[in-house]
């Protein structure tokens, strides 16, 4: 397993080893001990699975506030996405900045999105399936979001020639400048 810090060091790009032969492949995509040895000591308690039928589907930018904040580890099992994590930790030197990585069934990469980041993705292909582990249970009362097209963040979504597909909820999320202070940067 390879673990690499992105331009925001708390967000990690993880590539599990994949072993193939004439039958197909085998890959250990999560092993608590291996992750701990790589400095990722999280306790994932739930797996989520989404299917997006159309290219250009945007899900996000979502997060849960404390005490139900969630770390997420995201991977794609069919298709591909541009996966995005936005730093919303007030006082952080990277506040309002984002990391964007292409995750696909082909490249087999995973993105670790820690607490204090809003998360979202845009599908690059029809019928894309995303699996992600979370470190906290869902709480409707603590479920919040950030506007996907906030001009102050300036995410370069891959939507050329495609109309974005959004939920009603995601169309109405607040801008970063209007977002309450849910997370505070705790230092390095």
Can you tell me about this structure?
This protein has helices at 32-37, 168-171; strands at 2-5, 12-15, 19-21, 24-26, 46-52, 58-64, 72-78, 80-87, 89-90, 98-104, 110-113, 117-123, 128-134, 143-145, 183-184. With 188 residues, the protein is mostly beta strands. The strands form four sheets. The protein has a six-stranded antiparallel β-sheet, with no helix packed on it. A five-stranded antiparallel β-sheet has the order 10-8-12-6-14, with no helix packed on it. The protein is globular, with a radius of gyration of 16 Å.
Protein topology:
Blueprint: E1 2-5, E2 12-15, E3 19-21, E4 24-26, H1 32-37, E5 46-52, E6 58-64, E7 72-78, E8 80-87, E9 89-90, E10 98-104, E11 110-113, E12 117-123, E13 128-134, E14 143-145, H2 168-171, E15 183-184
Parallel strand pairs: 9-15
Antiparallel strand pairs: 1-2, 2-11, 3-4, 5-13, 6-12, 6-14, 7-11, 7-13, 8-10, 8-12
């Amino acid at each position: 397993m390879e673990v690499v810090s992105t331009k925001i060091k708390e967000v990690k790009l993880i590539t599990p080893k994949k072993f193939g032969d004439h039958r197909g492949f085998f890959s250990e995509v999560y092993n608590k001990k291996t992750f701990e040895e790589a400095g990722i000591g999280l306790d994932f308690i739930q797996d989520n699975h989404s299917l997006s039928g159309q290219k250009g589907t945007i899900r996000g930018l979502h997060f849960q506030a404390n005490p139900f904040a969630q770390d997420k580890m995201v991977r794609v099992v069919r298709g591909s996405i541009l996966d995005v994590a936005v730093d919303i930790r007030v006082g952080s030197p990277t506040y309002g900045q984002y990391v964007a990585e292409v995750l696909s069934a082909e490249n087999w990469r995973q993105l670790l999105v820690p607490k204090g980041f809003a998360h979202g993705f845009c599908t690059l292909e029809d019928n894309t399936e995303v699996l992600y582990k979370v470190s906290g249970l869902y709480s409707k009362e603590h479920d919040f979001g950030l506007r996907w097209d906030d001009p102050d963040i300036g995410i370069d979504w891959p939507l050329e020639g495609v109309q974005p597909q959004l939920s009603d909820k995601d169309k109405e999320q607040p801008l970063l400048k209007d977002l309450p202070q849910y997370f505070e940067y705790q230092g390095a």
